[in-house]
Amino acid sequence: MKNHVWRPLYVVLAVVALILVARYLYVPKDFGIGERGFMYGYHRMSNETEWKEYKVKYQSHEYCNDCHPDKIESILRSTHKVIECENCHGPAVDHPEDPPKLDIDRSRAQCLRCHARLPYPTSSRGRIKGIEPDEHNVEMECADCHNPHSPGMGV
Amino acid sequence: MKITRRDLLKMGIKAAAVASMPLTIEILTPEQVKAEIEKSDVRWGFLVDTYKCVGCGFCVKACKKENEVPYDAPVTRTWVERYVITKDGRVLADSPNGARDGFNDNRIRGEEVPENEISKAFFVPKLCNHCENPPCVQVCPVGATYSTADGVVLVDRSWCIGCGYCIMACPYGVRFFHPEHKVAEKCTFCYHRIVKGMKTACVQACPFGARQIGNLKDPNDPITKIITTQRVGVLRDEYGTKPQVYYLGLDDNVK
Known about the structure:
The complex is a heterodimer of chains A (155) and B (255). Chain A is mainly alpha-helical. Chain A contains six helices and two strands; from the N terminus they run αβαβαααα. Chain A has a two-stranded antiparallel ribbon. The radius of gyration of chain A is 30 Å and the shape is elongated. The N and C termini of chain A lie far apart (100 Å). Chain B contains eight helices and twelve strands. In chain B, the strands form five sheets. In chain B, strands 11-1-12 form a three-stranded mixed sheet. Chain B is elongated, with a radius of gyration of 23 Å.
């Protein structure tokens, strides 16, 4: 066969070989088919571990019990017992080391998430006692009058 | 040596066949794949009870903070939609800011619907369905997104090239482009929490139990019991994606 046929072929082969070598060096060794087969499970295995080690930030109210037992006790006696502390105070992360204090959000918006009256049938929202945000003591924070840790225990 | 057109074509076909042969890929038979899948005795599934949701949006807030999704950017892994259906059959829906700050306004897209005109109104939390047949995974050109043995669809942030195919492929619109990492981003079912026996951030934040997560392979799991014994629905069943987020009280108007 003539050279002008072979030469381009060599070039192509060299390019293919180069790509394969580059691929071999570049693709991490733990790339492979996971338990879900080729179509859904093709991935870098160590990425699963990376996700598993992601930092947990929300701790739940049991975490607060040792240091703020009064708050836990009063909220558990009230109708607000269903609300996690961290919903209102933000994620504890490693509190009290980091951050040393959690947020105290006294904004009306915090309470209006549930208490702005929305007259919705077929949703439990319609059954939470609601107020009209533009009428109920507009200029003040809710916590000036209501205790968020024990609402309904007198204003 | 002389080469005919026929020879050249033959050679070409052979070369193409050799070149297209898988080099490092191990091909499993369907039986082997099935055996591999059944190795895991966990399959995470999610249950949303739309009757219980009040639209407080604490789930969205918790998700964003737990997973470091930019708080003020218009992107979120989970969101809550509000539906108001009037007596004359109009469907109004909104989700301001993904309901990060809940719903505290009667007006829906600027329109005030009088109480006596509401026929039904409710909230629907949405999140990644962690499909059994995830189309977003199929389209990834680099193998940066995948389904784990326990059924969670994850994105490999160091491998994703940010092409956005998966974002387009998801019929539920749950994927988005992470403004900081510059890769595709999605709900992980809080993989870092569930593997430690904790609940996802959104499930823990929900005061009313509208969101629940459980192991679908455990017949005694309370969530599995509800899914197997009560009337539950999934979103866009017709796509064949086999979503694993089940809804109680789903409505025809929910898209």
